[in-house]
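BUG: 3D viewer hangs when loading the predicted structure for this chain

Environment: internal workstation, default settings.
Expected: structure renders.
Actual: progress bar stalls at 90%.

Input used:
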Amino acid sequence: MQKNLIDVHYALASFNISNSFNGISMGTGEISKIKVPTAIIQGKEDILVSLDMAQTIKDGIGKNTEFILFDHCGHAPFVDVLDEIVKIIMEF
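Structure tokens produced before the viewer hung:
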């Protein structure tokens, strides 16, 4: 059974590893523990995770982060631009 977008949005907002309150839950601060190189892959047309949210994640992880933005791509880059995702992962 497919969840509706309200449930998905609430789940995403409840999963808060940032250092701040996101309007639904206080962050756990776990984001600052990420020390490995990290690729944040974002679709420009993502209606669930905004560009601001993705930038906040990048900023929270820090300098060891690469932000990759795809035009004409939504919340599932692994579906929308699979070949490009595979190439990025293999090169990362």
